[in-house]
Design a protein that fits this description.
Blueprint (H helix, E strand, L loop, with lengths): L1 H25 L5 H40 L10 E3 L5 E3 L8 H24 L5 E8 L5 E5 L7 H8 L15 E4 L2 E4 L10 E12 L3 E10 L9 E11 L4 E4 L7
Antiparallel strand pairs: 1-2, 2-10, 3-4, 4-6, 5-6, 7-8, 8-9, 9-10
Length: 257
Amino acid sequence: MKKIIALMAAAALTAGAVSCGKKTGSAPQKPEPKTTEASSTEAETSETTTAVTTTAKATTTAAVSTTSAIATQPDPLGGGVFEYNEDGAVVFEADAKTADDKTLIAAAQALFESACRTEMQFSVGCPFETDSDDYIENSLSWRFYRVTDSRISSIDDVLNEYHKVFSDSHPNEISSTYMEKDGAVYALCGNRGSDIYYSSSKVTGIKSRTDNEIVFTVENYYDGSDFGGDAYTKTDEFSAVIGSDNVWKAGIFTLPY
């Protein structure tokens, strides 16, 4: 009998041990909620990444749009209304009479600057090749050197080049810097320097106008501060002569330097 009771007790202990073993083995399955939390984090990370990507795309699109806007801004020469031709004169795409004052002043500024460059080339220097060993002298013993450019055989040829920027309706001083002798042209080639005080020039307004000429006011600025003097301004007139082909050439003009 004692053996039977002992066997029953052992059987009960064995059943209890087996039951505890099942509970212990199921314990590692509890961290499942962590897996769920990880999935939520991954989802949030995915959403954040998508948002960043979308923002980056929007920023890139905005940058492209800005660049495109800059590229289509009007050009400095009147927003495409006028431009320089190959000779340095100003030519309008349409009738200049339809342009506003701001555009006319901008065109005058462009022509004035071209006139300065051209006048400097013709009256101070010489735009043509010359022979420094072949020269003649005027009554003041100034030397004029022979022009070797094959296009130039008379003063009229010089004027034809000069009048590509300057109108022939106004006087000029070409005859004082070029001489003609024995079928050849000689240039003074003064090569003087420019006014050391000169700073800049600005066409500031319209003074008068007719059908074929507009007279502008020009402010020439000079700065003598580097040499102990005071800055000052000179006011001049400048005119644009308007041709039938909408080409503007310089009329009234004074080289400011």
